Amino acid sequence: MSILLISVVALSALFSVGALVCWVMVMIRFFQRDNILAGLVTFFFPFLGWVIGLVKATEYEMKTLMVWWSIFWLVGWLPLFAFFFFGMVTHGLS
Fold first, then answer.
1. 42 Cβ partners below 8 Å, 6+ apart?
2. I need a surface site. Which of 20, 42, 49, 72 has the fewest CB within 10 A?
3. Residues 24-61: tens digit of each pLDDT
4. In angstroms, rounded to a whole number, what is the distance separating the alpha carbons of residues 21 and 90?
5. Which residues, including other chains, have CB under 8 Å from residue 72's CB and lie 6 or more apart?
6. Contacts of 52 (CB under 8 A, 6+ apart)
7. Residue 5 and residue 19 in contact, taking contact as beta carbons nearer than 8 Å
8. Predicted model pTM
9. What is the model's pLDDT at position 78?
10. How far is the C-alpha of 81 from the C-alpha of 63, rounded, in Å?
11. ∠ CA(43), CA(45), CA(50), 5° rounding?
C-alpha cells in the first residue's frame, strides 16, 4: 500500500471525524429548539439534516456550524474521490 494512499485515507478520516462532530452538534441544536422531527430526520438521514440545517441556520443561530460541517464533509470526501478517480485513470482501470 502506497504512502500516498495511506495519507489520503488518514486525511479523509480526520475530516470525517470533524463532520461527525458537527452532525451531532446539529442534532443537539434541533432537539434543544424542540424540533424533534428535524432531530430524528437528521439522525436517520444526515444529508436531509444538513439541508434542514442550512435552511434553519439563521433561525437556530448555527451558520458557522453549518459552514464547518459543509467544509469538513467536502474536504473529507474530495481526496478519496480524486485519488481513486485519478488513480484509475492513470493505471488504465477506468
1. 23, 26, 27, 30, 48, 49, 50, 52, 53
2. 20
3. 999 999 999 999 999 999 999 999 999 999 999 999 99
4. 35
5. 15, 16, 18, 19, 22
6. 30, 38, 41, 42
7. no
8. 0.79
9. 83
10. 27
11. 90
